[in-house]
Amino acid sequence: MIDLYTWITPNGLKISILLEELGLPYRAHAVDITRGEQDRPAFRAVSPSAKIPAIVLDDGSMLMESGAIMIHLAERSGRLLPQEPAGRLNVLEWLLWQVGNFGPTLGHAHNFLTYNPGRAPYAEDIFRTETGRLYETLEARLEGRQYVAGDYSIADIAIWPWVSRFLRHKVDLADFPNIHRWYLELAARPAVIRGYEVPHFTGAIPLP
Q: What's residue 149's pLDDT?
């Protein structure tokens, strides 16, 4: 049994969706970051960075950082991450693109474009432009491809929850037909639907 410490954010959803896809038994523990629960000593003992998600494995070992968790769970299960070197590197390339570029930029877009509009016009312009560039990168990547990196993988699972916040990015998915098609395909997967409701149901998956 895996203990998952998480909240209703894209990074948290990455892990619950992956666990559902892999069929691994787990218990979800809500860490309400709106109430500062991530700063409690008990959670910091699991995640020294005081950020969700984090997991405690059945042997008692602990792991934080969503990218590291995804790699470990995929390797543990032998699924959703190719063993063949070129395919593996391709998936890891796009997983790290999400971790280092797509996620952080869109997180700032949430802050400036949705939660604090008008407070920092310069920052809004920067993150609106960079958000558009990253969506264009993903759109080009999905041209002629069903999934981001070969077969369905942890790269798709990492990216999808961030795209599910497209309304907060002020993005119309109709402007990105490849992303639109890919997004709806994943949104219909039973494991994605189940994982989207962890640690609790907040509403149906947004559909463009």
A: 98
